[in-house]
Amino acid sequence: MNSLLTAFHAIALEQAVLLRTLLVATCWTALLALWTRPVPMFAAAVLGMVSAALVLRAAFPAFLLVNLLALWVAHRLEVSGHRWRRTVVALVTLVVLFVIARHRGWDVFLLKAGRFELTLFYLDMWMLLRLVVLFWEVGAGRQQAPALVPFIAWCTNPLFLAGPLFRSSRWPESIGQRRDLLCDAGWWVRIGTGLVMLAGGIALAAVARSTRVGAVPGPVTKALVLFFLGPWSFYWTIAGAFLFLAALGEIHGMFVGPSFDRPFFQSNIADFWARWNMTATTVFREVLFYNRWGFSKFNPYVNTMVVFFAVGLWHGSNLYWISFGLLHGCYFCAYLWFRSWSGRTKVAIPRWSAVLLTYVCVCTAWYLPSKFVGLLFR
Questions:
Q1: For residue 309, is it within any domain?
Q2: Torsions phi, psi for 279 (to 5 deg)
Q3: Same structural domain for residues 206 and 275?
Q4: In terms of domains, do 192 and 295 share one?
Q5: How many domains are there within the chain?
């Protein structure tokens, strides 16, 4: 059960880092809102670099260097005579680099000089997703490679450093201020809802930790963590933070769209994933799902497993997260088969039982990989 709790919060960022990100993003929004005219992009870039440095600390120089290298690659792709072929090479290279760096722990190697520390390499999960979309859209001709100053303003923006995903192609030409939102009750509701969800997620995480010291009997503890405390603390923490950050972005004309939309109350695994971390899952669907992978025709089962294998690797390049992704892939394939079979036989199941079954499958998908890893390395 300890490994399950660790998995729930490893991807969510440690609370101190998450709270620091939210604080810096709030300050960034407030400072830019003081401008009486559209904010110069150069000012947004400088303030973005300062903000990213406050969040990433020792990793900031490596973060900036990798992003600038990616910008150079994007410009090379734009003028390439074999754009799509080189785009595929760039994407594969980026993903392989991400997986190796995570597996080897490159981001924890520090260069120390007195009191100063520098991380030698940095490429986190959200940075990877931003750069994948950048390469994909430039390679497909959907956008031009961005200029240096707007690119820096975009990639260092503290609103989106740790998610949700905001694409470079949607970055505004100028950053305005919508002070009218400060008088909009709906905007304040979104801000308040995000903060309440975040506080609730942190509180549930604290309760989950307290159950591990024998406060309640073992089986009850496991059931509470597996079916309530673990999933809901993770969901409320991330969904609340993303809702808060998206609402802050609205002040400057950056409309992200929803990231989570009541995913735990869906009647099948497809609807769950359609409403879970939506800015990220859209990328996996767009880049990986609609592809024949060398087959003569589209195969939804093969593509589903490819997508969820990639989802697992994106969360963590280890056996636990790969198993997590493949298990969700199996769930999804089973649902595709059932949907086809029930359509032919006209068999239907009550919605309440479908919702319950989906919820149990989602919760156990966090738990079963930890048991699988435990059996292998006992």
A1: yes
A2: -65, -25
A3: no
A4: no
A5: 3
Residue 3 in any domain: the answer is: no
Q: Are 58 and 92 within one domain? A: yes
Asked if 44 and 152 sit in the same domain, the reply is yes
Q: What is the mean pLDDT of the chain?
A: 86
**pTM of the entire predicted model:** 0.89
In terms of domains, do 56 and 167 share one?
A: yes
Q: Is the pLDDT of residue 112 over 80?
A: no
In a shared domain, residues 102 and 150: yes
Q: How far is it, in rounded angstroms, from Cα 30 to Cα 42?
A: 17
CB 109 within 8 A of CB 120: yes
pLDDT digits (tens, 9 = 90+) for 298-307: 888 999 999 9
Taking residue 249's Cβ as centre, other Cβ atoms within 10 Å add up to 19
Residue 180's pLDDT is what?
85
Question: What's residue 16's pLDDT?
Answer: 67
What are the pLDDT digits (tens) for 26-44? 999 988 888 877 788 999 9
Choose among 194, 141, 148: nearest CA to 45. Answer: 148
Is the distance from CB of 60 to CB of 168 less than 8 angstroms?
no
Of 135, 151, 173, the domain-final residue: 173
User: Considering only CA atoms, which of 256, 289, 260 is closest in space to residue 276?
Assistant: 260
Res 213: pLDDT? 44
* CA gap 176, 272 in Å, rounded: 35
Task: Choose one of 154, 173, 192: the last residue of a domain.
Answer: 173
Of 125-139, 196-210, 357-371, which gets the smallest average pLDDT? 196-210
Name the residue range of residue 206's domain.
180-250
Do 168 and 187 lie in one domain? The reply is: no
The pLDDT tens digits for 153-178 are 999 999 999 889 999 999 988 888 88
For the record, the structure tokens of 262 come out as: 């009541």
Give the whole-angstrom CA distance, residue 359 versus residue 266: 8
- Give residue 28's identity as a one-letter amino acid code: W
**Does 34 reside within a domain?**
no
Nearest alpha-carbon partner for 327 in 242, 319, 300: 319
Residue 192 C-alpha from the chain's centroid: 22
C-beta neighbour count of 83 within 10 angstroms: 16
Q: Would you call 189 helix, strand, or coil by DSSP?
A: helix
Residue 89 reports pLDDT greater than 90: yes
**Residue 125 resides in a domain:** yes
**Distance in angstroms (rounded) separating the CA atoms of residues 216 and 293:** 50
